[in-house]
Each structure stands twice: as structure tokens, then as C-alpha cells.
């Protein structure tokens, strides 16, 4: 007789009893049916279910994982701030890699892993793991089912120990609260911090005014009444990598007006023999001011028609610009060239939130 019999040869004594099947949610089947639902195996209690000391150890483990996540997030932020972008480190067997990228990857990975590991360990050791069986039902839930779901939810919340195990709850909140800071810190890469760069230009005391067309230093006799000349600071070359950034702040507009026609005392004091120097950058949205009317001493921005009176401190007389063009104080050095006597006394260009 063969040792491998057909399914029909299974002894009845090895089949689950009807009572055992009913207790575990199985469907009762006729005696001798080889395809009867065996039901769920007997529930095995975990050590944490019967030993509160073991449960406390698991609680401390979960709290430790959440705490490690918080520390890793803090380390992520510290690495982002402290490690230079061009720092290179040797990591075996990878080789030389960016120290910043390596630190950010490791710390963020640890932070996320510890949150996940803590949640998994919490679920596997402390939350209820009693097996339940439920029959399939129509998608539309009846009021009784809805009530049962809410009751099950409340029971699950109670069994999870979320309200009772405060150590886990508080450390989890701390880890989840700190992890998003990693993304917030990365917002710094939207651009370098401006610091006080918006308030200063390349103009300094003794910097010569260089004609932007001839690239030669300007003398007073080079600027005639009624003319409009554009100048840049000495030493700023067009082929330098930061030329566009610097000229956008330092571009200068030079006009010679008869001293008797200058209405504002400070404008006259900061000029040289009627030669006045103003920022070329419009105070509306930063367009270059370039249209000059010599009879009225007005300059017009071609973008939105803001109009400034150069004989009266370059104040706005028309258009959307919010304030006058900043004036540069100028003089003449011992060699007879026009020079700056300092930087602009206020930020050039459009207003910004820290304008003072």
C-alpha cells in the first residue's frame, strides 16, 4: 500500500473539530470533508502580553529609536550648516565623495529609518496582535457596521497603549516634528543668504569714475552741460564672472547741470561743479534709467515711465517708482579725475523689506 495517499485518505482524527472551527471563525463543513476550513491557529501570547517588564523594555526600545531619529535630524541640520560644499572625504570602498552629501544622506537615512523601525517594533511587540476573522460584506456599510468600526477603532486605540504609554507617544511626536525640519533647512539652497550685500556696491572712497563706453577715467571737462554719461567703478571688467551682478548695483548716471539750476542743497554739496552722479537703476523694478531731457533735467525710465528730477535730488515726479534715485558723492583727486567719496548712502534699486 502506497504511503502517499490521496486527499480522501486523510484520517478524520486529524481534521479540526466543528467546535474548534467555530471558535476561530471557520465555516463548519460536513464530517470527512478534506477541504474544510481549518480555522485560525490558537493565539500565541507574546512575552510582552504577560510580562509588564518585557513590555517596558519594548517601550524603552521604541522610545530610543524615536530619540535617535531626533538626534539624526539635528545632526542633519548641523552638517548642512557646518560642512563646506567643496569638502571631500574618502569613504571605503566608495572612494572620494562629497562630505556634505555623505553626511546629509546618512543622517537623514538614520532619522527616517529609526521612525520606521520604532513604529514597526511598537506594532509587533506592544499593539494587540489577536487574530480576527470577518466575513465579506457589501461595500455600503450598515449603521451597525459603522458602529462596530468605531468601536473597533476605539478598542484598537486603547490596546495600542497610545494614551497610556506616554514615553513612546512623546518621543514619536518629537521625531515626527523634527524630521520636516530637514526639508525646511534645504530651502536655504534657493539662493545664498544676501546678508548686507543688497546695501553695498563696489563704490568706495577714491574709486575712479570710468566711462562705460571708452573705459577711460573721467575728468570734469569730459562731462559737458546737457550731456548724459554712464560710468562704472574703477577695476570692474566686463569679462569678470561677477560683472553683471556688480554693474546691476553700481551703474552710474552722470549729468552736468549749471550749479544755479540745482534746487536741492545736498545735491549741490555732493556734486562737483554741477556734475551730479546718481544710480542708473530705477527704484521701481530695477530697469536702467536712460532717457534724459536737458531743458528740464528730468530722466525717464523706459519701462514704466517713472520720471526723476535730477536738479532736485532725483525725486520722483511721475510714475510708479517709490523713492528718489540714490546719489553718489563725488569729487576730484590730485590727478584731476572724478572719484567717489564713498558708497551710496542707501540701497540702490527697488525697495526691499529691510530698506532703512
TrEMBL record:
Pfam families: QcrA_N (PF19297), Rieske (PF00355)
Signal peptide positions on this chain: none
Residue ranges with Low complexity bias: 25-38
UniProt subcellular location: Cell membrane
Domain Rieske: 244-339
CDD domains the UniProt entry points to: Rieske
Comp. bias intervals (Basic and acidic residues): 11-22
Keyword terms: 2Fe-2S, Cell membrane, Disulfide bond, Electron transport, Iron, Iron-sulfur, Membrane, Metal-binding, Oxidoreductase, Respiratory chain, Transmembrane, Transmembrane helix, Transport
InterPro entries: QcrA_N, Rieske_2Fe-2S, Rieske_2Fe-2S_sf, Rieske_Fe-S_prot
Region (Disordered): 1-45
Topology in membrane: Multi-pass membrane protein
Location, primary (coarse class): membrane
Residue ranges crossing the lipid bilayer per the database entry: 62-83, 103-123, 167-187
Sequence similarity: Belongs to the Rieske iron-sulfur protein family.
Function according to Swiss-Prot or TrEMBL: Iron-sulfur subunit of the cytochrome bc1 complex, an essential component of the respiratory electron transport chain required for ATP synthesis. The bc1 complex catalyzes the oxidation of menaquinol and the reduction of cytochrome c in the respiratory chain. The bc1 complex operates through a Q-cycle mechanism that couples electron transfer to generation of the proton gradient that drives ATP synthesis.
Protein name: Cytochrome bc1 complex Rieske iron-sulfur subunit
Organism expressing this protein natively: Streptomyces pathocidini
